Amino acid sequence: MRELRWPVSVTHALPDGSQLSLQPIRRRDRGAWTEVRSRNSDWLRPWEATLPPNSPPGPASYAALVRLLTSQARSGRALPWLIHLSEGPEQDFRMVGQLTVSGIVGGSAAWGQIGYWVDQRVAGRGIVPTAVAMAVDHCFATIGMHRIEIAIRPENAASLRVVAKLGFRPEGLRPRYLHIDGDWRDHLVFALNSEEVGEGLLRRWERLRT
């Protein structure tokens, strides 16, 4: 696995003329991040990670979150991106979600996990599958990772559709796997190995969409 370089952005033109970009989380995005998170709080709450009782406190502010994620990125353990959308070549990008590759391990494992959320206003437009495909291709082709996995609550129908569209392989149930929305929750695990998408996941996804 090659050295993880940070910061790095990934941009892709969508079939409808809009553009999607994975951009490093930065302090200057605080206003947009806070507004989108606040507006979507009820919609995202059932799928949000929480801290078990007696855990050390997490980041107390957006600036602290950026510092934590940036430190993880610079040490090669994470790729914390914000998802930005431009409605056309001449339009400004706006933040519509977040995607993080976390738990990155090199050596004989060479794998990581993807988590994401998206603004409800753009849900159903293929934003998340495209962003996931962009991230997977970067991890496989640029960094040289071998495996990416995604853990999803069985009740999260929207995310289950994402991994189905992208051809992630189901690997079974992990009982009480992650602390989500105030309790330990079961998760279904899905994975892809690099040799399963030799042509690139983004190319395969766009071919399936046409």
Q: So what's the overall shape? A: globular
Rg from alpha-carbon coordinates: 17 Å
* Mean pLDDT across all amino acids: 95
Strand order of the largest sheet: 1-2-3-4-5-6-8-7
Any low-confidence stretches, pLDDT <50, length ≥5? Answer: none
For this structure, what is the CATH homologous superfamily? Gcn5-related N-acetyltransferase (GNAT)
Total domain modules: 1
Strand content: 25-35%
Pfam family, one: Acetyltransf_3
GO molecular function, one term: protein-N-terminal-alanine acetyltransferase activity
Protein name: GNAT family N-acetyltransferase
Domain N-acetyltransferase: 34-195
Summary keywords:
30% helix, 210 residues, 8-stranded mixed β-sheet, Aminopeptidase, alpha+beta
What does it look like?
This protein is α+β, with helices and mostly antiparallel strands and 210 residues long. The protein has a single domain (10-209), classed as Aminopeptidase. Helices cover 30% and strands 32% of the residues. Strands 1-2-3-4-5-6-8-7 form an 8-stranded mixed β-sheet, sandwiched between helices. The longest helix is centred in the middle third of the chain and has 17 residues, at 127-143.
